[in-house]
Amino acid sequence: MSITTNNRSLRTNLSGNMKNYLLSVILILSLQTVSVSAKVNAIKANEFLNSIGVSTHITQGVDNPTNVATALTYCGFRNIRDDGSKNVATLQKFVSVHNKCGAKVSMLSVNGDITASLAEYRILAKAGALLAAEGPNEPNNWPVTYNGKTSSGTTSMPVAEFQRDLYAAVKADPLLANIPVFHSSESGGSQPDNCGLQFLTIPSGTNCKMPDGTVYADYANTHNYVCGTQGTKVIEDNQAWNAENPTLNSHWDGLYVEYGHTWWGAGFNGYTTTQLRTLPKVTTETGWVTRGKDSITEDQQGKLFLNLFLAAYKQGWSYTFIYMLHDDTNQGYWGFVHTDYSNKLSATYLHNMTTILADTTSSFTTDSLDYSFSKKPITVHDMLMQKSDGTFELAVWSEKASGTNSLTVNLGAVYPSVNVYDPTVGTTPVQTLSNVSAIPLILSDHPVIIEVSPVISSVQDVKREDATLASVYTSPAEDILHVENMQVLKKIELLDLTGKTVMQLSDISAGSTRLDLAHVQKGSYLLRLTDTFSKVENHKIIIN
Known about the structure:
This protein is of the alpha/beta class and 544 residues long. It contains twelve helices and 30 strands. The chain has three domains: 2-33 and 467-543, Sandwich (Immunoglobulin-like); 45-356, TIM Barrel (Alpha-Beta Barrel), CATH 3.20.20; 362-452, Golgi alpha-mannosidase II (Immunoglobulin-like), CATH 2.60.40.1180.
């Protein structure tokens, strides 16, 4: 094990006082200056929640805005995707949805009309309701007419020219300049002539019909349906994980066949598989029906969608929109809610997961957590998140089509409180553990969430300051905590979980200070440093 603190390191010494060292290993988990090697860096729970979206049909008149807002709030959706419109009254419906539940819109462009597209985007942007400006939807199915020309089975040039001009117009508008532009969906994979739609910006030397340097979008845009392009009758192992794989060339209409090597005819080369992994990307349609041909049960759909959102974000998709919110007798039973807007199991399961993970800010710096798995099979995946209050939320999900996986999550320390949640059961823990360092799990086909409480959970007024007052580290085979302060400190305090002062020093000169912790009980503590200007800096400490 290695502990790094401002270029200082603690390396385990296997000679000398081995027994004494093992009895009192001091793990320092500083908020800023100290990090333990082999740890996993957390992503922000709020940012994962921001990635969750769903398609609606407000513009088509199928969806009622009031019912939509209610369903979005319950499920925890933060984004919707819908058709473009020239009708101001229709656009105001999206504003009303945003005002009721905060959801923003990825709005499709008005077919072939740059002026009308900018007008709709500006209305939504002024209200704070616009997430993204999106190019034409599946022009292989709905051709684009632009500048008197229509795309067809022989040319995609009108799509390319429209997407280019749409991007330029959005970025030239002061109100819209910071709004991301999503590429035209399926246009890269389906182009019959090489217009370069398999790129966000056409690189030099590609011999596309559009010039090198042509800019189309900020994000690649796919419709990688988790049920497969032709539908499948059963859920397979790693169904969601494979559908979200940015390099997989399979029966999903994924990133590879849209932006790697396109699927129309002989196809055209785009990005390499290495580039596809980090390419900014969104999914604006994916899903699976619960009635009709190749349908699955509501329970299967609900579990699969939880896996899907997690797998997508883990593999680099910034936004995922599932098709669709509301079952419709004409468009199919893809929804999270029934035709009468009553909740399906997919709505209930998603509500539970977003409630467990609930957070509303990303204005903090994440920490890391030391964890590993015993006997982790290829159908089990994980993603570590952290809330703004410091709580870790470790999502572990199995995509095993049948049967179960048994494994153990090993934590790098003993934690005073760990909760285990199952979003298919509810929003309260199915298991609560105390002073635990390992969690045995039996997983089937959906996620569980392991919640690890912050090391310091009862000390009041803990502030997350930039760690600039001191470096904190330990010495091998010693029970000594070193504090190297760069300036005079007013106080050094060691506090336990209740906020009680275990040790205190006052008026400390600049230099090195040694704290002897040999007689301090094992457990979690807060080391609080205060300078002469009352600036506070906190370090989390575990004494094992």
